[in-house]
Amino acid sequence: MKQPLIALSLAVVLALCAAFMAPAPAGLLHGVVLAGSGALLVMFRPCRPLPRMVAPAGSALFLWSLAAFLPVSWFGIPEWRSHLVSSGVIDLGTLVSPQPQHTLAGCFLLGASIATGLFLLTQTLEANSRIWLASAFAIGVSAYAALSYYAKATGWMYPGTTRYGEFGFFPNKNHTASFLMLGGFASLGAFAGWLHNRRFAEAAAVAAAGAVTVTGLVTRCNSRAGTLLFGLGALIWLVRITRRGFERRVIILCWIAAIIVGTIFFAFDSAARGRIEKLATHALGAPGENKISPLDPNSEAASGRIEDANESLDFRELIWSDTLKMIRAQPLAGVGLGNFRYVFPQFRNASRTEALCLHPESSLLQLSAEAGLPALAALLWLLAAVIAGTGSSSSRGAWLVRSALATGAAMFLLHCCVDVPGTRVGTLWPAFIVAALALSPDPRSKAPDAQPSGRGSGFIYIGLLMLGAGLWLLSGGLESAPGSGPAAGFQMQERVFHLHRGGFQDEAIEFATQASRTSPLDPEFYFQWGTLELPLSHTGPLVDSLYLAERLAEPIKTQTPLREAGYWVKFDPAKAIPLFSDALRRASLFHLSTYCTTPEEVYAQVLTLAAGNAQLRGTVKDLAAGEPNLLLLWLQAGPPEGTNGEIREILAKDPGLARWDDATRRGLFRLWSERGGRAQLLDALRQIPEWDAAGWPFLAGEAANQKAFQAGCAIIFKYLPCPAEPEVAQQNQDTEDTELFRARYGDRPTPASAEALARAYYRGQDFDAVLQLAGEAAAAKLASPAMSALAYHAAVREGHWDTAWQWAVDFVRQTDASATPE
Description:
Structural class: mainly alpha
Oligomer: single chain
Shape: flat
Radius of gyration: 34 Å
Strand content: under 5%
Distance between the termini: 89 Å
C-alpha cells in the first residue's frame, strides 16, 4: 500500500505549493499545478473503483460547461448581447461564450480539477498514514501562517505580493481564511487521532502547529466567514465526538483547546471580531431600522446606507441580486467560464459602484452565471454521489481524523456559498486534499455501490493532457497566446503599456488589436488601442468607434468617458462635450455612498479638463444648467472679475433661488462676498427674508464690522442654538470642587477635564478664570464647542461683548465651519 501513500503525499506537497504560490503569475501557478497534477495521474493508478454515479456526475459537469461553445441562437440571444452587437463596434461572434479563449481556459481548469479530485478519491489509506498526512498538511499550513505573522509584523514583502502589512499572501483575505480553516480542521483531526493512539509527542507537535494556524485565523485574518465557519464546524465536531463516547482524555483535551481558542478570540480586539460584531449589530439593528432592499436600490433606505461594504452583508446582497438577474438572462448555458467580470457590468444596478467586480461573492453563483443552472445541478449531483459512496471507517481513531477533515470540507463548501474560495487553485487544491483524506476509505473497507474503473487509462490520458498544458504554461505559452488563461486580461494590458513606453508603437497597436478581438468585452484594450491611434488618426472614425466600444463594454464607471475626454481635449475639444455629459449621467445613477463618484466630483474633473480652453467654458456651463451644486462649482472655477455679472444673470432667471438649498445658497453668498459683491449681497439679504437661514453668517459678520457685537451674537444664536448657561453658585462655595477639577486638569489635561474645570470656575463666578482657561485650552488644542460656549457666557457676564463675539464665532467654527461669520 505504498503507492497511495506516496501519491497522496505528493498531492499534499502540491496543494501546499499552490497556496504558497498564490501571488505568483497565473501562468507559473497554473503551470506548476497542472503539470504536478498531471504527473500524479500518469504515474499512479487507482486503488479502488469510484463510487457509482460519481464519474457520470463529474462528466456531466464538465460536458455541460462545454455548452458555451454551442451557437448562442440555440438558447436565445439575450438583450444585453443584442444591444452591444447592434452598435456595430463590438463583435461577440456566434457562440454562447462571447470570449471563447477565456472559456476554453476555464473549461480546461474545470476538467483538470474534476479529474484530480476524482483521482484522489480512488486512493486508499491506512489509519496511521491518514494521521501522518493530516499532520503534514497541518504543519504546512502553520508554516504559511508563521510567514504571514512575520510579514505583517515586519513589513516584509512575500515574493509576488504588492501590499505591505497584509496577513496572508492571497489576493483576497477570504482565500487566506479558507486555507487556514482547512489547516485548523486538519490539526484538530490529527491531534485527536494521536491522542487516541497515545502518541503524545506527535499530538503536542500538531497542537503547536494548530495553535499557530488557528490563532492567525481568529486574531489576524479579518475574514468573518472563515472565523465563523471554523467555530461552527469545530463545535459540531466536538459535539459529535462527545456523543460517540471517545476516551475521556481525547474529549477533555479537545474541549480545552476549543475553550482556549474561544478565549483568545474574545480577548483580542481582532479585525475579524470587530467585523462580526458590526455584522451582528447590523443584522439585529434597532427596532424599525431601515435596511437596504436589493429589490428597491433607489429607495431612501438604500441611499447612503453603505458606509463600508466590508462591515455588513448589504453590499454582497446587492451583488447577489444583480448576479441573479444575470443568471435569469441566460439560465441554461450561462455566459461561458471565465466571462463573469466582463459581462456583469451589463447587469449592475443595485450594486452599481466605480469598483471593479471580479466575482459575485459566491463560487456557486459564479458557476451558475458562467455555466448555467444545469452545471450547478451537476455539481450538487457530484457532491451527493461522492458522499453517498463514502465507506465507513474501520477504526475509531480513523473516524476521529476523517470526521474532522470531513467537517473542514463541509465548511469549505459553505464558504463557497458566500465567497469564492472554490474558484482559486491555491484554495481549491488544499480542499481536494482535505476531502480526499476524509473520504478515501481504509484498504479493508468496501465502498458501497462501486463501479469498476479498469486500469485507470482514462486518468492517464487526462493526466497527459494536464502535464502537457502545464509544461506549455511553464514555457511561456500564456504570453504567446493572448487571452488564453485566467487573469490574462491584466497581463495583456500590461504588455501593451510596456510596448508603448518602450517606443514600439506599431507593435503595441498590433497587440492591442489582437487582444481586443480575443477579449471583445474588455474595455481596457479599446481604450489602449484608441489612445495609441489618436495622435495618428484623431480626425478619423476609428478612434471614435474604439472609444464607443470601451463605453459600451464598461457602462458604469465615470472615469471611462472622462479619460477619453481628457485625450479629446488635446485634439478635438468638441468631441469631449458628449463625454462630459455621459460621465455626469453615470454619476447621477449611483445610489450608494461607497466607491461611488458624485456628480459634483465628476463636474470638478470636467472643469479641470476644460481649464484653459475658452471654447469649452460656455459649453461646460450648459452642463450645469438646472443643477445649483454644479453651477456653484462653475462659478468658483471662473475668473473673479466676471462673478458678479454671472450671479446677476442667475438671479434674473431665479430671483428667489428657489431651486437652491441653504448649503448651496450659502456657498453662493460666500463667493459673492469674496469677489467684491458684499454690499449687494447684504442689501439682498435684508430684502429677502427667505434667505436668512443661509445668509445669517454674513448679517452677523456685518454687525460685528459695525461694532454691534451684541447684535451679531444675537443673530448667531438665533440660528445656531447655544448650550444653556450653567447655574451660578455663591462666591467661593465651590472651592473644593474647583480644586479637585484643577488637579485633574493639571494631571492629564483633556477637552473633558478642561471643560469640567471651566464649569467649576463658572459656578464660583470666577469668569476671568473661565476666559483664561478657554484661551489656554484653545492654544493647547483642547477646545470644544462647550468650552467656547462657556467662554461666551463668561464674557457676557463680564460685559465684554467684543470678547463674547470672538468666542461666539469660535463656537460656530467648531459646530458648523461653513457658517463661520465673516
